[in-house]
Amino acid sequence: MPRLTRLSARLLPCLLPAALVAATPALAHPHVWITTQAELDYGPDGALRSVRHAWTFDPTYSAFAVQGLGQSPTGSVNPAALAALARDNADNLAEQGYFTLLKVNGRKVELGTAADPSMSFADGQLTLRFTLPLKAPLAGTASLEVYDPTYFVAFSLAEGDAVATLKGAPAGCRATAHRPKSDPAARPAPAATGMSEAFFEALTAASTYGVQFANRIVVAC
After folding, report:
1. Residue 209 lies in a domain
2. Which of 84, 93, 151, 219 counts the highest number of beta carbons within 10 A?
């Protein structure tokens, strides 16, 4: 199965046109670029309760994804179609662990099912938002990483202060962004990575290749 078809099944189901799937072998790896922002929500006791993701897709992928959803080149997308798409995305991303690794005090945290999914289309780009609740609120130093182990999807952090916001965090808490040495925003071709497309085709969710491109937000209080 073409990797782009796999992505449609786990990220944007039933939207990719046959022409794009057919063109997959000619595309450079990775195939989709997402810019991320995060809001970390704290309770009155100072414990982290949830992470709210905002993922903005690259213009090319966004244009393909909204085909048939009622938009004109300069118009809006059908709100009901976007709502349904957001729900489908949140459901399918569960299989991938939402591409999210959260640690508190150095220990991996178990996350619940995505809640409050929504999607918007503005300035030619799709943005998906959803909340990941912690199964049990925890206090301490938090580390949030977002990446695709197979590097089919390249995640990069938003620029500036918007990359991470803290809601209700104890006084003195500060979020610091750590960007990978290899910047996914550079959009390298297979030759630039030194790996062939066949190499990437063989990667699975258990692979560690994508870790080198992981972006990380650390919140210390």
Report:
1. yes
2. 151
Q: What is the DSSP string of 99-162?
A: GEEEEETTEE--B---EEEEEEEETTEEEEEEEEEEEEEE-S-EEEEE--TTSSEEEEEPSGGG
Q: Rounded to the nearest 5 degrees, what angle is found at the Cα of 174, between the Cα atoms of 214 and 164?
A: 50
DSSP annotation of 202 reads: T
Indicate whether 16 belongs to any domain.
no
- Please give the distance of CA 41 from its chain centroid, rounded to a whole number: 18
User: Could you report the per-residue pLDDT of 23-72, keeping only the tens digit for each?
Assistant: 444 445 677 899 999 999 999 999 999 999 999 999 988 888 887 776 55
- Please count the structural domains in the chain: 1
Domain membership flag for residue 60: yes
- Please list, residue by residue across 93-114, b when 16 or more beta carbons sit within 10 angstroms of its beta carbon and e when fewer do: beeeebbbbbbbeeeebebeeb
Max mean pLDDT range (70-74, 145-149, 171-175, 189-193)? 171-175
Residue 23 in any domain: the answer is: no
Task: Specify the pTM.
Answer: 0.78
**How distant, in Å, are the alpha carbons of 106, 122, 126, 159, 168 from that of 56?**
28, 10, 6, 13, 25
| DSSP H or E stretch at residue 21 | helix 18-22
Domain that holds residue 46: 32-183+193-220
